[in-house]
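Checklist before submission:
- one chain only
- standard amino acids only
- sequence pasted in full

Submission:
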Amino acid sequence: MRRILIVLLLAILLLPAPHKNKPELFGPGRLLVTARALPLSATDPAIHSSGALDYLGGWQLSSPHRGFGGISSLLVDGRDEVLALSDSGTLMGFTLHPGPGSRHPFIAPLPVRTQDQDQPWWAWDSEAIAHDPVTDRYWVGFEMLQRICRYAPGFSRVESCRTWPEIEAWPETGSIESMARLPDGRFLVIAEMGMRGDGTHDTLLFSGDPAESATPSPIHLRYVPPKGYRPTDAVALDGRRLLVLNRRVTLKDLFTATLAVIELPASPRPDDRLWARPIARLAPPLLADNFEGLAITREGSRIILWIASDDNHEFFQRTLLLKFALKQGRPDIP
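Returned file contents:
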């Protein structure tokens, strides 16, 4: 019976309907978020690490607002204030430790250009976010629309959007899932299901802003994920190293995740392979769910990683937010 139930749940998750369970349109408003602290392991509270990650805390998030959830990407600042983006074009801002000067919690739809207002609400399948702290501009990757848009500071308006033929060649429901901005202004975009015959994932390296019409065509690279996994998000560690979050769904464990390091060649060439080097795994009895969001902050000399799950607005999934410190100086972290 348990196996039958698991198969049914997996079937629900993998249904192709693009608007399944997504909340319909709503206006901007305040957001009340409740955070319940969780141990890393369900069986041993003494476990505080996984591979190269030291566990600093984890929370199950909930809210009475019907638009909350579905987190597919996120940004976090040095005050632990979270800016989360759902897979239905919804921004959510909140802080784990409210205090003087904290951001007022909010929820709001992304702004839309006049020429795009005829798009159905469920088509705004926003799966990736990037930020330039110098200009305070944001970039969002839309999976179904297969486009990348740039937003003005504070998400006040859409500045530019571009649809690339290289991305249109990817499956519509498996295109832009991971997008990272490098410190030098380059962008790396990884397809979730745009795979080659050898199982590698088509990856695009842009020399500049992917939302600008003047940006040249990207270089095609190949991401080699851990066996059985697919990439769901990426962040830059520095000018050449990136962390990639990978997800797998199986009958045995349901959702598991692997965090891996990749390194860009000094002079990338077409079809260069980016080999994933796993540094941590999240699987039962450790906290595990549909992890899709990855963010990076720094506390002094420590690199802090944040991992969030997409609950798909399903009753049997959770919105989790986990905080880790990256163990540095290990041989598995180049």
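Reviewer check: The helical segments are 2-13, 165-168.
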